Amino acid sequence: MTDSTSNKKGRPTPKRKDSEAARKVSSIAPASTREEKKRAKDAARAARIASRAAYVRGDESALPIRDKGPVRKFVRNYVDSRRSIGEYFLPIIFVVLVLTLIPSAIFQIGSIVIMYSVLLISVVDGYLLSRKLKDVVAEKFPDAELKGIGMYGWLRSTQMRRMRTPKPAVSRGEAF
After folding, report:
1. 86-122 confidence digits (pLDDT tens)
2. CA-based radius of gyration for the chain
3. Which among 46, 59, 99, 164 could disulfide-bond with 54, CB atoms 3.0 to 4.6 Å apart, if both were Cys?
4. Among positive and negative, which fits the CA dihedral 54, 60, 61, 67?
């Protein structure tokens, strides 16, 4: 048998009240000082700004998953190297809005016809662009997954050029 004195811990068991008080953290005291919070907030803001700038520049490490990879970069460059009616859709709609304010039936009907015509042309252009992109990407990147490539290119082509992110890396008409 073992000696009962060798199993003792050498101090009395603390009262439950004392143990709970030792575990409890005061909720009134701040976790850190005001200056520490301000420094952390400023550092987080600077990190966000730097990350956004890297994303706009097109740094591969700062891009979201949907924009990463050589295939997506190729699609972006392909779309940015050409003109498309989709990038002019928003300014045309603004003109259509102004034309509908003119109290003449010819202007109002004409503006609606213009709006739907541009929309139809934009959809057809996007469809043709999507098919062309899939063919070109399949030829240039034989192992690449083609799912979503056409829609990615079409959606980029509908954005005004200066509003695109990441910023266009090629100029219009440039071979890449």
Report:
1. 899 999 999 999 999 999 999 989 999 999 999 999 9
2. 31
3. 59
4. positive
List the domain boundaries for the chain. 39-64, 69-163
Closest CA to 170 of 56, 77, 74, 83: 77
Instruction: Say if residues 90 and 122 touch (Cβ distance below 8 Å).
Output: no
> In the structure encoding, which two tokens stand for residue 145, read together?
């997954």
Region of 95 on the Ramachandran plot (φ > 0 left; ψ -120 to 50 alpha; else beta):
alpha
Query: Sign of dihedral through CA atoms 174, 78, 68, 124?
Result: positive
Has this prediction a pTM greater than 0.85? Answer: no
For residues 137 and 111, is the Cβ–Cβ distance under 8 A? Answer: no
Q: What is the dihedral of CA 46, 52, 56, 58, to 10 degrees?
A: 90
Distance CA 137, CA 139 (A): 5
Query: What is the sign, positive or negative, of the torsion defined by CA atoms of 102, 108, 112, 118?
Result: negative
